[in-house]
């Protein structure tokens, strides 16, 4: 075996995702296929995004494309946005610009966790396990509530051991679309504080917030940073801009982390990002960050697409979790077999994501980033296979 153990473990952890992703290559160039799998764009990019990139790709100095770490204007724009949204006094120097949320999570894990430490992750949830395995960390899954997919604080508490170093919270949550309330997050903070006291070792909370600005029906947002001081916040602009191929994100240290510890973390960010392979966004993306802070996809249109699918599929008998945020629709597969269901849909030219990639073989996920026409064309096949 030529592979390192960590490479093999990461490969095994993400195998359901890579296998499905590779299977989609057969769809390339097929105009009649309805692709509702990943949160990719199916319409032309936002004009404001294109304008920002066009403006900032034009060099204004000889060092315009020189090596860049976190640029001050980008940090200042992020900190101002966080202060406005979360009501906490985030400082620019506590913001590390990263290559999307992927990059931010990679930095966060190595900032506070050592090889062999355990990281509690939600289930069903995003694909944290491969990143943890690649960092020689141990994923420990904590199920969300079975009926509503809300944050299950008791399940998190049961998952914590003396080796726990990080707990991950993703709200609004992928794939379920749930937004966790302040009361539940406050309970979680109390659990983490008590567990940290018992073990004599601080447990950190990583708040994964790439969908923070995509919420429906006037639902508010509470960041765990408001409820537990020892919180790191990661964010990606790729979701709200619907441009996941343009890598821009950040990791922010909560201003509620005590000053001494925050200064220590802050000082480690630059060398850690350099050590991880110069993990900073490209210069043009950082130059564009201040302008992109206020740019967003049409959330009202997303809500209309959500309502279309929830109404039509609910009437057909599907058991759905109505999303409060994100751009996904999560449902129970007819017959309880996601592989059989998604395979039958694929034979009808409609492709959705099977819950097997989230370790939930009885569910499926639809991406609402498809066009309205694509969603309408998917409905006959979905109705045909309804429970």
Annotated CATH topology of the largest domain: Aspartate Aminotransferase, domain 2
Global geometry: globular
Oligomer: single chain
Mean of pLDDT: 96
Amount of helix:
40-55%
CATH level 4 superfamily of the largest domain: Type I PLP-dependent aspartate aminotransferase-like (Major domain)
Q: Could you name the ranges where pLDDT drops below 50 across 5 or more consecutive residues?
A: none
Q: What is the SS-derived class?
A: alpha/beta
Widest sheet: strand order? 2-8-7-6-5-3-4
When the domains are counted, the total is 2
Largest sheet geometry: 7 strands, mixed
Question: Which CATH first-tier class of the largest domain would you pick?
Answer: Alpha Beta
Total count of strands: 12
Proportion of residues in β-strands:
15-25%
Give the termini distance in whole angstroms: 46 Å
Please identify, by name, the CATH architecture of the largest domain: 3-Layer(aba) Sandwich
* Total number of helices: 14
Gyration radius, to the nearest Å? 21 Å
Order of helices and strands: HHEHHEHEHEHEHEEHEHHHEEHEEH
């Amino acid at each position: 075996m030529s592979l390192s153990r960590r490479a093999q473990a990461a490969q095994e952890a993400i195998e359901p995702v890579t296998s499905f992703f590779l299977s989609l290559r057969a769809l390339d160039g097929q105009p009649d296929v309805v692709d509702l799998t990943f949160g990719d764009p199916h319409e032309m990019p936002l004009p404001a995004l294109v304008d920002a990139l066009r403006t900032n790709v034009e060099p204004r100095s000889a060092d315009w494309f020189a090596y860049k770490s976190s640029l001050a204007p980008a940090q200042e724009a992020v900190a101002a946005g966080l202060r406005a949204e979360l009501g906490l006094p985030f400082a620019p120097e506590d913001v590390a610009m990263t290559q999307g949320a992927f990059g931010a999570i990679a930095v966060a894990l190595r900032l506070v966790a050592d090889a062999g430490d355990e990281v509690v992750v939600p289930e069903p949830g995003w694909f944290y396990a491969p990143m943890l395995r690649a960092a020689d960390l141990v994923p420990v899954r904590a199920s969300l509530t079975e009926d509503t997919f809300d944050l299950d604080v008791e399940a998190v508490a049961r998952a914590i051991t003396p080796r726990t170093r990080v707990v991950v919270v993703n709200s609004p949550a992928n794939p379920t679309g749930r937004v966790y309330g302040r009361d539940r997050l406050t309970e979680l903070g109390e659990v983490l504080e008590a567990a940290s006291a018992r073990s004599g070792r601080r447990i950190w909370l990583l708040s994964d917030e790439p969908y923070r600005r995509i919420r429906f029906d006037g639902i508010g947002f509470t960041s765990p940073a408001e409820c537990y001081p020892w919180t790191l916040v990661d964010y990606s602009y790729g979701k709200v801009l619907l441009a996941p191929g343009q890598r821009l994100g950040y990791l922010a240290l909560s201003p509620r982390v005590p000053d001494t510890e925050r200064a220590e973390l802050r000082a480690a960010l630059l060398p850690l990002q350099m050590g991880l392979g110069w993990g900073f966004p490209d210069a043009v993306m950082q130059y564009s960050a201040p302008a992109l802070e206020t740019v967003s996809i049409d959330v009202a249109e997303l809500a209309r697409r959500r309502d279309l699918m929830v109404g039509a599929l609910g009437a057909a008998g599907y058991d759905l979790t109505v999303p409060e945020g994100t751009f996904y629709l999560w449902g129970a597969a007819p017959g309880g077999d996601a592989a059989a269901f998604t395979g039958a849909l694929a034979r009808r030219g409609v492709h959705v994501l099977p819950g097997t990639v989230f370790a939930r073989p009885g569910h499926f996920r639809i991406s609402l980033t498809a066009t309205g026409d694509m969603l309408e064309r998917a409905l006959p096949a979905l109705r045909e296979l309804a429970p």
